[in-house]
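Backbone-to-sequence.
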């Protein structure tokens, strides 16, 4: 619990540094297990009958920390941090008032980058990148206001392009399509898998 407390204090610093829209935000030093939290259809988390403010954690069977998150009045606020069973950081995902905000970063067990996604008020923004465990680039996608915009590329493990197309302002796609890409982030791996999901087609 001492380790968790120190990490929690770090979250307060990180949180207050990236949430200037919440004046003098202070999270209480309250630590609970995630299994003790409930949530409604709006995504508001409760501890008992009250919206939760504080820190929630999830543990591996061996007692090591698997994930910790911070909440403010029932909404994710600050960094959600995931860990491998070794204690190494698996991902860091910042939130503000329940929405994804800022740079979401993932790492392989050896510390190599796994993904780097950017969000603004819950919407994908800027460049989303993901890498294979070998370090080779897996995908590089561009977004504006939550929608694909500009150049979109995905590579196979051998380094060859699997998909390479451009999305224009009118929403039309030009280039090499046929990619199956998932629009959701896997909850366990925190990764966007570009080989699963809806088949893309050329816009008419």
């Amino acid at each position: 619990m001492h380790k968790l407390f120190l990490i929690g204090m770090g979250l307060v610093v990180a949180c207050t540094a990236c949430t200037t829209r919440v004046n003098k935000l202070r999270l209480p030093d309250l630590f609970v297990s995630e299994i003790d939290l409930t949530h409604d259809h709006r995504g508001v988390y409760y501890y008992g009958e009250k919206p939760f403010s504080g820190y929630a954690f999830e543990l591996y069977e061996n007692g090591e920390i698997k994930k910790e998150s911070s909440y403010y009045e029932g909404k994710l606020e600050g960094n959600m941090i995931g860990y491998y069973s070794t204690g190494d950081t698996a991902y860091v995902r910042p939130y503000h008032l329940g929405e994804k905000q800022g740079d979401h970063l993932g790492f392989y067990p050896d510390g190599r980058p796994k993904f780097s996604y950017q969000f603004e008020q819950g919407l994908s923004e800027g460049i989303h990148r993901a890498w294979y465990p070998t370090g080779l680039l897996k995908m590089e996608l561009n977004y504006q206001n939550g929608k694909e915009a500009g150049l979109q590329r995905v590579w196979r493990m051998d380094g060859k392009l699997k998909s390479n197309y451009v999305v224009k302002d009118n929403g039309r796609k030009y280039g090499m399509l046929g990619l199956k890409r998932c629009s959701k982030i896997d909850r366990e791996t925190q990764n966007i898998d570009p080989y699963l999901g809806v088949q893309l087609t050329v816009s008419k």
